[in-house]
# Entry
Amino acid sequence: MKRDHSPISWIPTVYFAMGMPFVVLNMVSVLMFKGLGVSNSQIALWTSLIMLPWTLKFLWSPFLEMFKTKKFFVVLTQFLTGVLFCLVAFSLELSHFFVYAIILLAFIAFSGATHDIATDGIYMRELSKADQAKYIGWQGAFYNIAKIVASGGLVWLAGWLFDYYSHKDASIMPDVDMAFLANVQSWRVIMLIVAVVMIALSLYHTKMLPVGGAATETTSLKETASKLKEVIMNFFTKKHILYYIVFIILYRFAEGFVMKIVPLFLKADRESGGLGLTEQQIGLYYGTFGAAAFVLGSLLAGYYISKRGLKKTLFSLCCIFNLPFVAYTLLAIYQPTSTPLIGTAIVLEYFGYGFGFVGLTLFMMQQVAPGKHQMAHYAFASGIMNLGVMIPGAISGYMSDWLGYEYFFIFTLIATIPAFLITYFVPFTYSDVKTD
# Structure
């Protein structure tokens, strides 16, 4: 297949663009709202519920086949996401900022989920099965490099800006709540940076992104609704599909519990069972130790799978994926102050996440998605995956408040057991051909 540009010219950037809004909504906003005085339970609940579009995106995936090209939707949603982040930035100073910000973030989630459908459609259409395995490490690496940039670099910058604005405005407005004002100012800058990045990426991809297929001849709403019904019915008639659905949900089930709580745990004071870190410290740990570990884990996993095959490696990928839960349990029990110890835990988190996540991604592409409706079925599968993260995430704040951080992380270790069992016995529908 003739390509206008090498996959390396667009895979890293388009999957970085995919990861950025997801990570900001799922993780960075947690620290933002915490700094602005919102309670843990409300943060965990609402920042989980706004992720619902990533679960339901299969419902509108067939409609994307009706108009324009996949490239059109990728570029459009990147630009729209940038504009919406700009609005979030200026909503933070309003009296009911949490309500307005959550509504805007929900629209970003819809735009981001639509972007993901089209992006994965381009990836699967433009690359052969061998190239999908070859570049899966790059895909996973840059999707999660967005996580490093956002939860590392941007969080660190938010902490630095907080200190800057606190000292700058203290003498000018002594009667104002300087901590709240400094948080508003610092997080406004962060949201504007994200907006600029997303708009810049949309402009870049107007030139570098392959088309990914033209619109189908289906033009009426009735025909498309009928197609959606066909897509859903066809999905549930796939071989082993019920097993696959449970597998997809359970693989990341424990991660769903800890995703919102880890940054809150790192920031919480020691009297509350946390580690008492500042945003700058959290950003530094994530952006240095975590960045190196994640890139290494993602790239190694891609080549590891391509050499041995997914069937032989999937269980080991699952084991490594769950390593971080042991590390955070130990941190909660002992509450160390040592930088090397905390850094080691974050290295385990990011290496394990990077190494193990690509296995699930490739499984959905090569065992669940293949068939007549490949793009829609991959969107369906990834939506189910996000449901498995969203549900435990929504209740994680209440559970951590009830159990305390130490017992909460012990609970997450127990929650990993179903993932080990179902991964060990998962059947493969399609031949797992080793790629050299």
Summary: The mean pLDDT is 86. The radius of gyration is 21 Å.
